[in-house]
Amino acid sequence: MGDTASSKMHEKSLYIKHLSRPRYGLTDFSRLNNHRMKYSNPEIPEGINTSTQHPLKEFALLVGGVLGAVLAVVMVLTLLADRLAVYIPFEVEMRLASRVTEGLPVEEVKSLPIEAYLNRLADKIVAEQKLPPGMQITVHYVDDDLVNAFATLGGHLFMFRGLLEKLPHENAVAMVLAHEIAHIKHRHPIRSMGRGMIFGLAIGMVSSTLGNAMTDRVLANTGGLTVLKFSRDQEWEADQTALHALYQLYGHVDGADRLFKVLEQATENGSLQTPEFFSTHPLSKRRIDNIHAFQVGHPATADATVVALPEQFSTWLIPAAGGQAEGMP
Prior knowledge:
The chain is mainly alpha-helical.
């Protein structure tokens, strides 16, 4: 028993010595230290920090990259111009319009009975169309034989004597006003000015000098604000908005198509050359059919009787004869 216990204790002692023995001998540590202390300092090759390309070529590539990025941004803005137009503040549009409307042949607003009447009727239509805050409508009377009416930038609406003379009742006049006001409500004038104008106005919100230069150039190329033409979709949208306003105002839309019928008949029988109104507001059977379809879907809620024009209306159309305010209703 004694020998066995002594033998086990001896084996345990040897095992403990084995565990406490260093893993590396002196020679091993020396090799390890030598390995860690080895380093090299290679000679740097010449020309490693220089390019083999000509400096101007690298500069051209850099400039080309920047111009490419700018061009890409411009293209995106151009493609989205129609959508961006509605985000241009109306105040910006009004300032642009003031630079052009000064030279148009119009009387002082509301100084004539005809203008007072037209603006008063327009105010009623504006209330029904619920225009956004700050969007003001101003109706101008133009004493000219031209059969036309148009809406332009800044809420300006122009009614020509040549057209007013063809309208038989107030409902027809209201249809013209409501249609043109709807164009302004939906920002059709600024959208129809083209992508260059939209981009110029957008740039003008950042840089007034650059923006004004771009918009002035567009205005010069397009002939100003009197040649705006709207798409078929925009005409349809304006018609629908106008019909809803007339329905709310009169309780029916009878007489709304009278405008188109009168002008169409006068053109067909040769008593009137193609009205300028048709060049900016293309007439189509579909537009008249849409008015009739609206009438079917919106039965009259009141006496479907058209409202007669004021007795002095024809006199008001001639400023020299009806320029005094005494004939105003």
